[in-house]
Amino acid sequence: MAAAGGESSSQSVSDELFQNFYSEVKQIEKRDSVLTSKQQIDRLLRPGSSYFNLNPFEVLQLDPEATDEELKKRFRALSILVHPDKNQDDPERSQKAFEVVDKSYKLLLDPEQKKRAVDVIQAGKEYVEHMVKQKKKQLKKDGKSQDVEEDDPELFRQAVYKQTMKLFAELEIKRKEREAKEMHERKRAREEEIEAAEKAKREREWQKNFEDSRDGRVDSWRTFQTKGKTKEKKNRSFLKPPKVKMEQRE
């Protein structure tokens, strides 16, 4: 029971932190028409931006239903605001912000990439809708009022935003894991290729040395055999019996 209470408390704190963050984001968006270059740079480089910026529509502050013309118009306006030429007092951060905007724009220009982003956002919305239905179903079963906080359009948007952010983050983590695995496999394949090449080189060198030394080995063997025969002949000569001198009789 204590563990469950601790988990519930932790979840409550997490939800409260997200609520504060979401409120800040929405306040910034409401001031979008008067945001300065610095404010846009701060928004794009805020803590956690590496995951918040995975959603290209959030980066450009566009609805997924935005037309290509609206996309181009928004990119031009935002890229001018954060461009390093316009922010010479903060060139490093403005360059990073501009790269985020440019990356999101190019991603949405690719029909396949744009469809993937839209699908993630739609999946987040469908998940929240499903959870709301499940909540209402359980409340009805318990004989309680079926009113839930997500009935409030703003709270529903918050829930969709939170779930969408989670989905983009999960996809990014999987992408990085897949890249790391592929890199490891490429490295291993390269090491095996180098090892095979070195082994083949050693075998060629051994074969060459063997061929180059063959004549010498043959000559050495012939010399050895010749010396052996000569020695054998000399040894045999020592074994010859002495000639016997016949005595002469008178």
Give me the oligomer status. Answer: single chain
Structural class given helices, strands, pairing? mainly alpha
Number of helices: 9
Give unreliable regions as ranges. none
Instruction: Count the E strands.
Output: 0
> How large is the radius of gyration?
42 Å
Mean pLDDT level: 82
Largest β sheet strand count, sense and barrel closure: none
Tell me the helix content. Answer: over 70%
- Separation of the first and last Cα atoms: 145 Å
The ordered string of helix (H) and strand (E) elements is: HHHHHHHHH
Principal-axes shape call: elongated
Strand coverage percent: under 5%
Describe this structure in words.
The protein is built from nine helices and no strands. Helices cover 78% and strands 0% of the residues. The chain has 250 residues and is mainly alpha-helical. The chain has helices at 2-30, 37-44, 49-52, 56-60, 68-82, 91-109, 111-141, 153-212, 214-238.
Detail the topology: elements first, then pairings.
Layout: H1 2-30, H2 37-44, H3 49-52, H4 56-60, H5 68-82, H6 91-109, H7 111-141, H8 153-212, H9 214-238
Helix pairs in contact: 2-6, 5-6, 7-8
Task: Quickly describe the structure.
The protein is mostly helical. Helices cover 78% and strands 0% of the residues. The chain has helices spanning 2-30, 37-44, 49-52, 56-60, 68-82, 91-109, 111-141, 153-212, 214-238.
Write a concise keyword list for the protein shown above.
250 residues, 9 helices
